[in-house]
Amino acid sequence: MTRLLLDVDTGIDDALALAYLASLPEVEFVAVTATPGNAGLRQVALNTLAMLELCGRPGVEVAVGAEVPLSVPLVTTPETHGPQGLGHAVLPQPSGSVSARHAADVWVEAARAHPGELTALITAPLTNFALAIRREPRLPELLKRVVIMGGSFYHQGNTTPTAEWNTHVDPHAAKEVYAAFRGLPEDRLPIVCSLDTTERIEMRPEHIRRLSAAAGCAVEELVLPEQPEGLRSTSENPLVRHLSDALRFYFEFHRHYDQGYLAHVHDFFAAGVAAGTLEYSTRTATVDVEVESTLLMGTTVADYRKLWGHPPNAKVVSGNNPEQAFQELIRSVGALAARLYER
To answer: What are φ and ψ of residue 300, in 5° steps?
Structure first.
């Protein structure tokens, strides 16, 4: 059993990550916390509640934390994830409500209650995690494993030429988080899923077609570049339908930026790393984040050769297997959709 604490800014790839994790019977959602990023804080929380319920995981505590980054103004991305964060998908209103607890308290109290048992997955800016570490500096030692989706090292950024989105939204939080892990044993260092490898996880129309087939849909789910933008799915399976609508928007966005009719589903890969189901390799490094330069704000730097003379604080993913990742996604989420919404 993998017992997960998650922090998300539920946009399209976070939603896919939640669906994948919900499809794994061996994964327990201890709690999910929300950070603003892909959308504003309240919308992120609603998206998260709705997605968990759609995926057959009602009753999971969803808590909110900071409404803005530590030191810079909040920026969101409706052009990337749609006005509500889930592309063209409009999920049913959730029946659950947002927890009264602050996200940082949720993390600290859970880690103290279950030392060495919980895996942390952060697919959002690191604001809430930084606040939790401020409240409990031992948090990096209390968690069993930490997986972070963020950063860009030897790869073009997706927000500025050098910076990745999650880190750029709150670079000061990211800097604090990496500093908190410096000098810890290697098995306590965060696994960092940066753009260097997450942009290899390219979801394409064929994957959606195969997902609908795995779900037992009577009609092929076709999301194609020649179709009108904004075309809505008519799939009889609600999970397939909503994922298809969300991913179509993501495909359209990537095409607008000359990347092809595809979607980089970063957070799904990080979820698979946290669950232990996807293939990957890592390199140990000392990671730091630029927070002073206007030109390079949010840039992540990895020292692999100990040139700074500082102890390591991260294991950066250096290799993965996209084919295996999508086979696993289609098999598992397809089975979940079939199980939940059998005709």
So the answer is: -100, 140
Please tell me the predicted confidence (pLDDT) of residue 342: 83
Rounded to whole angstroms, the Cα distance separating 100 from 305 reads 45
Is 165 within 8 Å of 116 (Cβ atoms)?
no
Q: Is the pTM of this model over 0.90?
A: yes
For residues 120 and 140, the answer to whether their CB atoms sit within 8 Å is no
Structure tokens at 251: 């495909």
> What is the distance between the alpha carbons of residues 222 and 235, in angstroms, rounded to a whole number?
10
Residue 104 pLDDT class (50, 70, 90 cuts): very high
d(CA 155, CA 91): 34
| Residue whose pair of structure tokens reads 């604001």 in the numeric block | 127
User: Across the strands, what pairs with 236?
Assistant: none
* Residue 160 pLDDT grade (very low, low, confident, very high; cuts 50, 70, 90): very high
Side chain identity at 74, as an amino acid letter? L
Q: Quote the CA–CA distance of 203 and 266 in Å, as a whole number.
A: 10
Tell me how long the chain is.
343
